[in-house]
Design goal:
single chain; 115 residues
Length: 115
């Protein structure tokens, strides 16, 4: 159905000449202009590197947070320290706005599980 609407409006993407490896003319870049396509491919390579680092850091943070919780509970402490969670939420909100709050909530959940 979406394809029908796009085709009727003339906005259905049509394959262009070029490879699928990020080379100029690649339809994945959204442009057939060679310089722009090459720059987009270059930028996307860096984005992919950043994504990989973020995933690694996310997983490390979750492991460390789980270790903190396990250590705290093993010593008779509470499962959660709400003041610490509020501190983290505020740090991300201050740096990133409303989206930062959502990121922080996801990070906290990854480390402690759902409430």
């Amino acid at each position: 159905m979406m394809a029908d609407v796009a085709e009727q409006s003339g906005s259905l993407a049509r394959p262009e000449a070029g490879g699928t490896d990020g080379s100029p003319g690649d339809t994945r870049t959204g442009t057939t202009e060679p310089m722009a396509a090459a720059r987009i491919a270059e930028i996307r390579k860096r984005i992919d590197e950043i994504d990989s680092a973020l995933i690694d850091l996310w997983q490390e943070r979750a492991r460390l947070s789980q270790e903190v919780g396990a250590t705290r509970m093993a010593s008779g402490g509470t499962r959660l320290v709400l003041s610490r969670e509020q501190e983290i939420l505020e740090r991300f909100r201050s740096a990133l706005g409303a989206d930062g709050t959502q990121v922080a909530l996801l990070l906290l959940r990854a480390g402690r599980g759902p409430l």
